[in-house]
Amino acid sequence: MHGRLVLNKGDKPYTAKEISDKLSKQGKTAAPWKLISLGKGFFEFSFASVADMRLVWAMGMVNLKPGLLRLSEWAKDFNKHTQWQTHAHVWVRLMELPQEYWLERTLLEIAGAIGTSLFIDSATQKRVFGHYARVLVDIDFSHRLFREIMVEREGFAFPMEVVYEWIPNFCSHCQIIGHHVSNYRWVHLALPAALEKEKQREKF
Known about the structure:
Blueprint: E1 2-6, H1 16-24, E2 34-39, E3 42-46, H2 50-57, E4 61-63, E5 68-72, E6 87-95, H3 104-111, E7 116-120, H4 122-126, E8 132-140, E9 148-153, E10 156-164, E11 170-171, E12 176-177, H5 191-201
Antiparallel strand pairs: 1-3, 1-5, 2-3, 4-5, 6-8, 6-10, 7-8, 9-10, 11-12
């Protein structure tokens, strides 16, 4: 997993140990983990288990007071000079899913069609209600969003509606999270095409 430290002007930079100490207070992992600095505010995390990695990753963005630490999926050939923020953690609802699929491993596999599954919420785990299962997913918003996915098992398949509880502003022009393409008043000729691209990306 990677992390990027975002500080305000005048804030003192943190050492890897200082960040590690602050994160340790946010939640306890089953085994020790390692954090190394990559420079320019980027860090790389190593965990002993997938469960521990998901526990920390699910924090998404950690307020270090001062400063924020944005967490993201580990990627090969990581280059700190070419990083753009296209991922965000979003709670998704898997609508009207039959109860036989409400096992944690199964739910995480189903939600994996949308992005990288992190956690199911406590109400889903305890089956407080059966209208929808709720899963926290790390989503790359530079890719197409699916409003419906196919759930398959041997000899049977059915479509299932996916509801996103929150969708961040994503600029199809810059390919980053944080604002919408309509903010660019100077892209007069390109704007209609960019907006159409945005609509196509969010189609079912």
